[in-house]
Amino acid sequence: MPRPMTPFVGCDVFIPDGAGRVLLIRRGDNGRWALPGGCQDLGETPAECAVRECREETGLEVRPVRLLGVFSSRRYEYVHYAWKDNEFCHLLFLSEITGGTLAPTAEATEIASFPADALPPLSDGHEPRIAFGFRALGELSLPPFFE
User: Can you tell me the distance from the alpha carbon of 55 to that of 11, in angstroms, rounded to the nearest whole number?
Assistant: First the structure.
């Protein structure tokens, strides 16, 4: 497949648990932790993508409630990510769980919640998104982040 002419759109969910932790998945491709999410398909909106990816990776149904920010892969170094030759525009949604049952998959071999001060080894680019998500929880009037 030839290299795309435009960036991929990645849609991630930031799901706080009410106890100061965020839900993360251990990626099956690099063994590192990340927010649930993935690439938008043609024919779906970014919010629909975030919901679908979260369901596929975790078994949870979610509802995006707020756009937290727009992040670019041009701002971080690829070290552990499997798709190193691509460029991404990541949309991060604060989301709440509406149903489903946690269930690991081939894409997400483990699922757990972590506090900001005890994050596991993260997949490339997730640290700034997670940090901003925690910041937004503490500052409800904080406008969305964008690069």
Answer: 13
- Residue 133 neighbours by CB under 8 Å, 6+ apart: 14, 16, 22, 35, 68, 92, 94
pLDDT tens per residue, the chain (147 residues)?
A: 566 677 789 999 999 999 999 999 999 988 999 999 999 999 999 999 999 999 999 999 999 999 999 998 776 666 555 555 677 789 999 999 999 999 999 899 999 999 999 999 999 889 999 999 999 999 989 999 898
The domain 8-141 is classified under which CATH number: 3.90.79.10, 2.50.20.10, 2.40.30.70, 3.30.365.10?
Answer: 3.90.79.10
β-sheet bridge partners, residue 94: 14, 66
Q: Residue ranges per domain, the chain? A: 8-141
What is the value of pTM for the model shown? 0.90
The encoded tokens of residue 61 equal 């149904």
Q: Which residues contact 7 (CB under 8 A, 6 or more apart)?
A: 72, 73, 86, 87, 88, 89
Nearest-10 Cα torsion for 132, 130, 96, 67 = 40
Looking at the annotation, which residues are catalytic?
Answer: 110
